[in-house]
Amino acid sequence: MSNAPSLLEVDQLSVSFDNKAVVDRVDLRIDAGARVGLIGESGSGKSLTAAAIADITPPGAEVTGSVRHEGRELVGLHNRARHRLRSGGIALVSQDALTALNPLVRVEDQLAIPLRRRGVARRRCAAEQRDLLASVGLDDAERLLRGYPGQLSGGQRQRVLLAMALATQPSLLLADEPTTALDPTVQAEVLALLRALTTAEQPAAAQPPSLLFISHDLAVVAQLCTHVVVLRAGRVVERGPVSEIIAAPKHSYTRELLEATRSIGMPQEVS
Ligand SMILES: Nc1ncnc2c1ncn2[C@@H]1O[C@H](COP(=O)(O)OP(=O)(O)OP(=O)(O)O)[C@@H](O)[C@H]1O
């Protein structure tokens, strides 16, 4: 990656519990237009890295280091300033839509929250909601909007979560294993959607958000991402363009991940 200022610059980011670092001095760059895969085995610190970037670490976590988004430092900001940034800059899609959505609130009311925060007038909300649902491949907008999360399929809920993230018009989308809870066919559809939403397919289209995609699956990252960062026990052990890492992994741990991928079969097709 170049030396020019990046959309997101993470320097020496650590997350500790009781003085023990579980994310350990992580450096990360995401340029506009890049799709970066953050990969590592369970417990390697992927989710907490994303949580620290999105400022949603759990109680007891101590975050040190620097996270700059479009040049603005996010670590140590007061809550209100962070809140403003989050509704216009970095959006998170988590792996468990059922937990992320409020089961007692209709989809339309949940989708209205990021729109209002963005300043969309109440009378414009319904049209925006339909457009957002269409952009994530959900056509039956009227029915879905009136429903509760529990009345939707897993794939539909994940798409609603994606729509809520897009409603903030983010420049960076953090996707934390967004397809883990889905069956393989729906998984492939949602991954294809993520790729379409984060790829400038039409030259005239507005700049799509960059992506930080968290996964333990190198095959999926290879299909979706431009770059990959490999995390092991909280530390970055390897990084680079995805094609280079796949062709010639330098670290033994990356080779193990690659071997594991090959033993399960060819990468899943997401295009
Ligand atoms: N609230 C917490 N208190 C103490 N330790 C925690 C807490 N949350 C996570 N950890 C520890 O931090 C480490 C990193 O966790 P993290 O969830 O970031 O891993 P991960 O790579 O995302 O794993 P997975 O792929 O299973 O989601 C783990 O060892 C975990 O046990």
UniProtKB/TrEMBL annotation:
ABC transporter domain boundaries: 8-258
Membrane topology type: Peripheral membrane protein
Organism domain of life: Bacteria
Pfam families: ABC_tran (PF00005)
Name by which UniProt lists this protein: ABC transporter ATP-binding protein
InterPro entries xref list: AAA+_ATPase, ABC_Ni/Peptide_Import, ABC_transporter-like_ATP-bd, ABC_transporter-like_CS, P-loop_NTPase
Keyword Membrane (UniProt): yes
Listed PANTHER family: DIPEPTIDE TRANSPORT ATP-BINDING PROTEIN DPPD, OLIGOPEPTIDE TRANSPORT ATP-BINDING PROTEIN APPD
Localisation: Cell membrane
Family membership noted in the UniProt record: Belongs to the ABC transporter superfamily.
Organism: Saccharopolyspora mangrovi
GO molecular function: ATP binding
Keywords (A to Z) from UniProt: ATP-binding, Cell membrane, Membrane, Nucleotide-binding, Transport
SUPFAM superfamilies to which the protein is assigned, alphabetical: P-loop containing nucleoside triphosphate hydrolases
